[in-house]
Amino acid sequence: MSKQPLFEIKNLKRYFPAKGGKTVKAVDDVTFDIFPGETFSLVGESGCGKTTCGRTILGVYPKTSGSILYEGEETAKMSKAQLRQFRRRNQMIFQDPYSCLDPRMTIGTIIQEGMNVHFKRTPAQRNEKVTELLFKVGLTADFASRFPHELSGGQRQRIGIARALAMEPDFIVCDEPIAALDVSIQAQVINLMIDLQQEMGLTYLFISHDLSMVRHISDRIGVMYLGSLVELSPTAPLYEKPLHPYTQALFSAIPDVHRGKKEQRIHLQGEIPSPINPPSGCKFSSRCPYAQDRCHEEAPALRELEKDHFVTCHLAAQL
Amino acid sequence: MDSLLTVKNLNVSFNTYAGEVKAVRGVSFDLGVKEALAMVGESGCGKTVTSKAVMRLLSRSGGIIKEGSRIEFMGQDILGLSTRELNRIRGSKMSMIFQDSMTSLNPTMTIGNQIMENIFTHEKTTRQKARERAIELLKLVEIPNPETRLKNYPHQLSGGMRQRVMIAIALALNPSLLIADEPTTALDVTIQAQLMDLLRSLKERFSMSVILVTHDLGVVADFADKVQVMYAGTIVERGTVDEIFDSPRHPYTWALLSSIPGRAQESKSKLYSLQGTPPDLLLPLQQCPFAPRCQYCMPICKKAIPKENFLTDTHGVACWLQHPMAPKVTPPAGIGGYDHE
Ligand SMILES: Nc1ncnc2c1ncn2[C@@H]1O[C@H](COP(=O)(O)OP(=O)(O)OP(=O)(O)O)[C@@H](O)[C@H]1O
Ligand SMILES: Nc1ncnc2c1ncn2[C@@H]1O[C@H](COP(=O)(O)OP(=O)(O)O)[C@@H](O)[C@H]1O
Ligand code: SF4
Ligand code: SF4
Ligand SMILES: [Mg+2]
Ligand SMILES: [Mg+2]
Question: Are B284 and A281 in contact (CB under 8 A)?
Fold first, then answer.
C-alpha cells in the first residue's frame, strides 16, 4: 500500500495498575498502520487488549509509551485546537447500544448533543440535520421524539451510529457493534456500516470476535494475543493461510454452517495466561503446540513473511 | 429409535399487565435416546420457555402450561407429577444448564460445596464419597487441579471454567436428558469449541440425549442430529441437520441461513437481512406468523395458518409454499449446500 496512512501506531503500550503493585499489560508493544478508507479489524479472545487498543488510539486512555501518528502528526503533541478537531473526526460506537444512550433524553437530543458543540447551526438547521442523520441510518424522522427504551437493539445501534456520524468523522472505532444483536439484525447493521463507508469514505477500526463477519467486512486484520499483535495481514491470505500457530487454532475453532469441507480443529491447551504475568519469550509459548526451547527464552519480532503479511513467530516459515 | 421425551401440543402463556403473552403455541416434538436436538430462532421465539416447560421450571416466572399440553419423559407424565416427584427427577434424570453461569451459581458457596449439595439432595452418601465424586466430576469436565478448585468461589474462575462447573453439576447424577440453553453464547470461539467438544464426548460416554438452545447456526451444524427452527412460539421447520442445512424449505430458515456471510460471498457485498420484527405474542395467530416479513407471502398465507407438511419422516415444514398448488420457488443462492468452495 502506497497511500499515506491515517494512523501510524508504533510500539504502543498501555498498562493498567493492578492489585499488589503489579501491572496489567493490556496493550504491549503494538505496531500497525490504518489506511484511509479501509476497514482494519482487531480479533482475538476476550481480554487480549482489543478495546484498550482502540480507546488508546482515540486518546480515551492515555498511552503508557509508544507513538500514535495521525496524518503524520504525533497526537500527543497536538495543540488544543488540533485536539478538538481530532476528537470530532474520530468517533466510537459500542457493543451495548443501550448502556451508552441516556435513557432520559430523546433520540433527537442524543444525536445533537455532541454536534452542537462543534457546528454552529440554528435550531431549525439542527432539526434538519437530525432528520437527515436518522434517514441515513435507515430510520424515520419521528424517531427523534422517542426514548431509547422504546427502540429495539438494532434500532439503538443505529442511533449510536447516527450520533457518531453527527460529528462528521472520517474514522470510527466500532467495538463489538453487533455482539449483542440477533443474526438477522447483525446483517442489517453490517450492511449499513458498509454502505456508509462507501458513501462517505469512512475508515473503520472494527473490533469483533465474530470471525465470519470480520472476514466479510475487513480489508486487513490484526490478530492479538495477550496484548501483542501476533499476525497482521490482508483478509484473504489470513483466512486462506494463517501463519501464526495461534491464528491457526483460533480460525479452526470457528463453527461453520458451510459444511462442505471440515478442517481439523486444533486444540489449545489450557486457558489464556494472565496479562499480569505473561509467559516469558513468546507469549503464546505456554499453549503453542510447536513451542521449542528458544520460544520460552526469546520473544519473536514481527516480520514480513509474505508480502504485507506479518507474523510474530520464530518458526512460522517452517510450519 | 426409542423415544425419551415426547412433547405434544405444548402451549405456554404469561399473564402480563398488557394481557396474555402466548409464548409457546402448540409445539410438538420427540427426542430419542442419545439424540441431540437443537432449537434455533431469533430472540423471543420461545426456545427458553419450551425448555423450561420440559423441566417444569416455569412457575417461578409466572408461566402457565395450558390445558391440553402433554409432556412425557421416560414414560412418565411430567405435567401430572407432584413437586416431590419432580424434584426427584430434576437434576437426576434431567438437568439444565443456562447461559449465564454467574447468576446460576451461588456466589457465596465454594464450587465443591455446590456440586456436593446437588449430590446430597438425590443420594444418601457420606461427605467423603460426595467429595470424591465432585473431584471425579471436575476431572470429567477437564478442570485442572480439581482438589484445589473445589475450594474456589465462582468469581475466582473464568467464564469458560464456570460453564464447566455448571456442566459438572448437571452431570453429577448421570441424567438421561441434558438441556443446554445457550451454553456458550457469552464465551470466546476457542473456549466455545472446547466446551462443545466436551459436551459431545460426555454425551457419547453417558448415552445422554441433549437439547441445545442456541442462535449460533454454526454450533448447531457441528453438534446436533436434528434441528427445529422456531418462530413466534411455533416450530416452522424441523429436520435432520443435513435436511435443514442442505435443503431448507421454509423462508424463515432461508433468512436465518442467508444472514450469515458465506465463505464464497464477495467481501463487503450486501448481506441478506430480514426486515421487520417477529409478531406481537399478545395477539392471536390467524395467519402464517412469518407472513408480514416473508418475501414469498401469498394471499392464502394471510388467511390461514399453514399446517406442518412432512417431506420425509423427519423433515417437516409449516409453509404454504409446500402446497401442490403453490408456485415453485427456489431458495436464495448461497445457502443450502451451494456454498461449498
Ligand atoms: N416471565 C415472563 N413474563 C412475560 N413474558 C415472558 C416471560 N418469559 C418469557 N416471556 C416471553 O415469552 C417469549 C419467549 O421467550 P423465551 O425466553 O422463550 O425466548 P427465547 O427464544 O429463549 O429468546 P432468547 O434467544 O432471547 O433467549 C418472549 O416474547 C418473552 O418476552
Ligand atoms: N480500566 C482498566 N483497568 C484495569 N485493567 C483493565 C482496564 N481495562 C482493561 N483492562 C485489562 O486489560 C486487558 C485487556 O482488556 P480489553 O482491552 O478490554 O480486552 P478486549 O477488548 O480484547 O476483550 C484485560 O486483562 C483487562 O482486564
Ligand atoms: S514463537 Fe514458538 S511458541 Fe511462539 S508461536 Fe512461534 S512456535 Fe509457537
Ligand atoms: S406460509 Fe406464506 S408467508 Fe408463511 S413462510 Fe410460507 S410463503 Fe411465507
Ligand atoms: Mg472489548
Ligand atoms: Mg432464551
Answer: no
Q: How many domains does chain B have?
A: 2
Closest-lying ligand 4 atom to the alpha carbon of residue B250: 5
Query: Under an 8 A CB cutoff, do A257 and B337 touch?
Result: no
- Ligand 3 within 6 A of CB of A282: yes
| CB < 8 Å from B in window 175-194 of A | 182-188, 190-191, 194
Judge: B260–A257 Cβ closer than 8 Å, yes or no. yes
Longest dimension (CA), chain B: 69
Q: Which amino acid is at B304?
A: A
Residue B341 — very low, low, confident or very high, per pLDDT cuts 50/70/90? very low
Same domain as B219, residue B258? no
- Integer Cα distance of B222 and B204 in angstroms: 15
Question: Of B231, B236, B213, which Cα lies nearest the Cα of B223?
Answer: B213
Across-strand partners of B70? B8
- Stretch 174-193 of chain B: residues touching chain A, C-beta under 8 Å: 187-193
Residue with cell 410438538: B28
Q: Count chain A–chain B contacts defined by CB atoms under 8 A.
A: 112
A183 in a structural domain? yes
Q: What's the distance, CA B57 to chain centroid?
A: 15
Looking at the fold, whether A46 and A6 belong to one and the same domain comes out as: yes
Tell me: ipTM over 0.90.
Answer: no
Q: Which numbered ligand comes closest to the C-alpha of B291?
A: 4
- Over residues A206-222, the pLDDT tens digits come to 999 889 899 999 999 99
Compute the distance between CA of residue B211 and CA of residue B324 in angstroms, rounded to an integer: 33
Contacts of B196 (CB under 8 A, 6+ apart): A255, B184, B219, B222, B223
Question: A176: which DSSP letter?
Answer: S
Whether B271 sits inside 8 A of A270 (CB atoms) is no
Domain hosting residue A131, numbered range: 79-218
Q: Does residue B305 lie within any of the structural domains?
A: yes
Out of A255, A258, A261, name the one closest to residue B262 (CB).
A258
Q: Give the separation between CA B260 and CA A215, rounded to whole angstroms.
A: 11
Residues in chain B: 341
Reported as a pLDDT band with limits 50, 70 and 90, residue B159 is: confident
Select from A22, A24, A56 the residue to mutate for testing ligand 2; criterion: most ligand atoms less than 8 Å from CB. A24
Residues B58 and B107 in one domain: yes
Q: What distance lies between CA A172 and its chain's CA centroid?
A: 9
Nearest-ligand number for the alpha carbon of A290 = 3
Alpha-carbon distance of B90 to B95, in angstroms, equals: 6
